[in-house]
Amino acid sequence: MEMIKVSANSRTSAVAGAIAGVIREHKHAEVQAIGAGAVNQAVKALVLATGYLEGDGIHIVCVPHFVDAKIDDEKIVTAIKLVIEPR
Amino acid sequence: MEMIKVSANSRTSAVAGAIAGVIREHKHAEVQAIGAGAVNQAVKALVLATGYLEGDGIHIVCVPHFVDAKIDDEKIVTAIKLVIEPR
User: Fold this and answer.
1) Which of B36, B47, B66 sits opposite A37 (nearest CB)?
2) How many domains does chain A have?
3) What is the pLDDT of residues A23-80, one digit of tens each?
4) A vs B: CB pairs below 8 A
């Protein structure tokens, strides 16, 4: 399963669609965001995805984690990973 | 029960302690953040609170919502509300 990577410039509706699609298929999705702008877009996308999936009777919840992420194939930074699953 | 309000300048450990305390007492906590910096601090605090509460055997999950919030007792803006409960 792929990690959904979100940046500060990601479109929330596109990210939300990706979350909803992965949840429908795998019942588990992971979203990674580095930096405040990206975390904000990820959380907004999660609100939208929650609405999309409620229409299917799927109620999702999220658990956030810190993870190490590599940027530019080199530098290690702390990212936020949102683990999303049906309640 | 009070809403825990988070700003971009909030200390994550202080917010995490507040979340953990409210969850222990009420089994339900709500965190409000306006703007990317505040949402980022709120999510980081939630990661810390998750760790604090795991020590007590409490595993929390989060559902984010959009809410209208009033700033300066006047202007209405869209805020993120994180609803936090034991899984």
Assistant:
1) B36
2) 1
3) 999 999 999 999 999 999 999 999 999 999 999 999 999 999 999 998 888 899 999 9
4) 61
What are the chain B neighbours of A78 within 8 Å (beta carbons)?
none
Q: What is the CATH number of the domain that holds B8?
A: 3.30.110.20
Contact of A15 with chain B, judged by CB distance below 8 Å, is answered with no
Domain containing A34 equals: 4-86
DSSP per residue over chain A, as a string?
Answer: ---EEE-TT--HHHHHHHHHHHHHHHS-EEEEE-SHHHHHHHHHHHHHHHHHHHTTT--EEEEEEEEEEEETTTEEEEEEEEEEEE-
Residue B73's pLDDT is what?
84
